[in-house]
Amino acid sequence: MADGLTELAKRRGFFFGSNGAYGGTAGFYTFGPQGAALKRNVEDAWRDRFTIREGNREIEAPTIMPEAVFEASGHLEGFDDMLVECPECGESHRADHLVEAVTDIEDAEALPGEEVEGLIADNEIACPSCGTPLAGEPVEAFNLMFATDIGPGDAQPGYLRPETAQGIFVEFPRLKEYARGNLPFGITQIGPAYRNEISPRGGLLRLREFTQAELEQFIDPEEDEPPLELVRDVEVRLHPAAEQEADDGESLDTTVG
Ligand SMILES: [Zn+2]
């Protein structure tokens, strides 16, 4: 169904894989005239709801930030995915996804690399692209951030932000001044984020460049009591993971509280 939808979206001018004239680049999509307009409407609706009506404030930070930011946030050390490379065709795959597809394991990413290597061998997992067995191939941690240089020569290393939150957190001291030092306050940001996904797929579901809309609410944990009673009785319809996987899965009507 996803393929059919992607085809339809392409024909009608909503979105299509980028750089087709040069062979295409996985994980990058261009929004056509219809899609760009629709995306703008979604962003405006989000802004209206979460920035304007909730009384938060919007900022727009740079998308490239220096290494120190990502050292502090832990992304340099731990923003990794498990990669296994096919010795025959050279294609890279998410090792944890390969294991999850043929075992009952739901979160293979949480396992140590050696254990995933063992599972690949035990389950005789082969390369999805060419069928070559992947047993014995190393499973490596691959950092998902796109690296770049800031300036020429002995340039400062920089990274394209993997999520919009960094720009909000880094500027907290100044943003707090704008709020006259009073907590709580909320900051929103809408903009691109970048992740060098190992094997992007699923159309717009797993992309290397995508738009995030984010709200960070800063509170004083000692003083501020979030007004949860305002939302306790709000009714929502959920479709939990277990129901999604069941053949006759149903939605669940419940309240937030
Ligand atoms: Zn292969």
Summarize the structure.
The chain is α+β, with helices and mostly antiparallel strands.
Would you kindly provide a written description of the structure presented here, covering whatever features stand out?
This protein is an alpha+beta fold. It has three domains: 37-74 and 146-224, Bira Bifunctional Protein, Domain 2 (BirA Bifunctional Protein, domain 2, 2-Layer Sandwich), CATH 3.30.930; 80-143, Herpes Virus-1 (2-Layer Sandwich), CATH 3.30.40; 227-257, no CATH class. 31% of the residues lie in helices and 24% in strands. The chain has nine helices and 13 strands. It has helices at 2-12, 33-53, 67-73, 75-78, 95-102, 113-122, 165-170, 172-178, 241-245, and strands at 15-17, 29-31, 57-58, 64-66, 80-85, 92-94, 139-143, 147-150, 156-160, 185-194, 209-218, 235-238, 252-255. Strands 3-10-11 form a three-stranded mixed sheet. The protein has a three-stranded antiparallel sheet with strand order 4-9-8. Strands 6-5-7 form a three-stranded antiparallel sheet. A hairpin with a 5-residue loop joins strand 8 and strand 9 (156-160). Zinc ion binds at residues 86, 88-89, 91, 127, 129-130, 132.
Instruction: Give the rounded overall mean pLDDT.
Output: 93
Number of domains: 3
Determine Rg (CA atoms, Å).
22 Å
N- and C-termini, Cα separation: 35 Å
User: What is the annotated CATH architecture of the largest domain?
Assistant: 2-Layer Sandwich
- CATH superfamily of the largest domain, called what? Bira Bifunctional Protein, Domain 2
Number of strands: 13
Tell me about the biggest sheet? Answer: 3 strands, mixed
Reading the helices and strands in chain order gives HEEHEEHHEEHHEEEHHEEEHE
Give the helix proportion (percent range).
Answer: 25-40%
* Hetero ligands: zinc ion
Q: Please list the strands of the largest sheet in the order they lie side by side.
A: 3-10-11
Low-confidence stretches: none
| β-strand amount | 15-25%
The level-1 CATH class of the largest domain: Alpha Beta
Assign the CATH topology of the largest domain.
Answer: BirA Bifunctional Protein, domain 2
Structural class: alpha+beta
Please tell me what the overall shape is. globular
The quaternary organization reads as single chain
- Total number of helices: 9
